[in-house]
Design a protein that fits this description.
Elements: H1 2-15, H2 21-45, H3 52-72, H4 78-104
Helix pairs in contact: 2-3, 2-4, 3-4
Amino acid sequence: IFLIALGLVGVALAWNPPALVGLFAQKGVYGLAAASAAPILIGVLYTKPIPAWIALSSAFVGLFTHLALNLGYGVSNPAVSATLAIFASFAVFGTGLLLNKTRQA
């Protein structure tokens, strides 16, 4: 169902593209970077198993912080909103690791 909806959105955008397609795509690429930076980096460097809820919550915070700053709070440069979102994503990941460590102790 999700892929069908995504395909319909793609067709709608192809028929009526936004004025600046490059900037539209740039927001999406920065959103992917904001969502995946912390889970990938910490997942590679951290040697112990990481619960999936920590990685998922970090990814959601990264993506939605970027989108909220860029679309809702007027941060016009997507690199700035993505950078702040990556910092928030790392903070959520670190907090999740600390909570998981205290829960296991």
